[in-house]
Amino acid sequence: MKAAILVNQKKKLIVDELDLPTSLKVGQVLVKLEYSGICGTQIGEIDGVKGEDKFLPHLLGHEGSGIVEKVGPGVKTVREGDSVVLHWRQGNGIQSEPPKYNWNGKTVNAGWVTTFNTKAIISENRCTKIPANISKEDAALFGCAVTTGFGVIENNAKLKMGESIVVFGAGGIGLNIIQAARLTSAWPIIAVDLFDNRLDLAKKLGATHSVNSSNKSYLDEIENILKDRELDVFIDNTGNTSIIEMGYNLISDQGRLILVGVPKTGENINIFSLPLHFGKKITGSFGGECNPAKDIPRFIKMMQNGLWDLKGLITESYDLENINEAIFSMRTGKTSGRVIIKL
């Protein structure tokens, strides 16, 4: 197999060949990957936003699609030849032992799912069978971007028809949050981001208004859009503590602040907590609390019946050998939507 390996934090990934284990253990599934998305989480892992990484060198990636090549003992939810989505949230089946790969005599660690690789040993509960006729390129986004985005609206924000929402950060997850908010008939849906290309895409996918946060008066712009209306939901995808604090102050006394982005280790928010006793809420999202085994088939059926689609969401694709260029494109804001790696 070929894989992109994180050898040192804050360094480029190394693309090289690894040796697969000779046999599968209980609950393990060998998958030939076709596509992988890149999530901000992987950039955070590379940058070490959660501190020192004790598992280096290791593989990365937590949303992808592929075909099952082989199943290990005890596996019942998928079989050889199945089309599958790979996801980081737990689904049905066994949670296996994570695999270890050989790299020129050195052990390379991996979690229950990795997708920056042409093949991977995946824990059964991190892969969900999908219809064979679904685009594998689109299917990769169901591993995180779609399920997290929709789950944030359904399970964390519990957004209702006609409620107002600000989505701060219009990357892959933010754009799906906006799509889900549109399906809920929220109004207004205000997308905020540093890059106009992302905001243009956000409006195509359902945002009623857009605000560029590089403008110093962006908070005034948000308040002018709301006018005298209270803000029901503020969703932060950035992990920036000053934005989180702003969102907390902006929502109504009964409003909900949803934290999708995670601040760097050691960075804390400073808020006046009294309103929390009277209905204001802060909720940290963990992948939108989605259940992949139930939610992925449900969201696919909605897409097949024309309720929403992924057209325009994938804006760039790269080969695995050029994955560092893809990551750079995300960092600089060149990428409007989701980046896909073709495996």
Automatic annotation (TrEMBL):
One Pfam family from the record: ADH_zinc_N
InterPro entries to which the protein is assigned, alphabetical: ADH-like_C, ADH-like_N, ADH_Zn_CS, ER, GroES-like_sf, NAD(P)-bd_dom_sf, Zn_alcohol_dh
Keyword Oxidoreductase: yes
Species of provenance: Prochlorococcus marinus subsp. pastoris (strain CCMP1986 / NIES-2087 / MED4)
Family per record: Belongs to the zinc-containing alcohol dehydrogenase family.
Gene3D superfamilies in the record: Medium-chain alcohol dehydrogenases, catalytic domain, NAD(P)-binding Rossmann-like Domain
Listed GO MF terms: oxidoreductase activity; zinc ion binding
Coiled-coil features, chain-numbered ranges: none
Co-factor(s): Zn(2+)
Record's keyword terms, sorted: Metal-binding, Oxidoreductase, Zinc
Location of the Enoyl reductase (ER) domain: 8-341
Domain of life: Bacteria
Protein name, UniProt field: Zinc-containing alcohol dehydrogenase superfamily
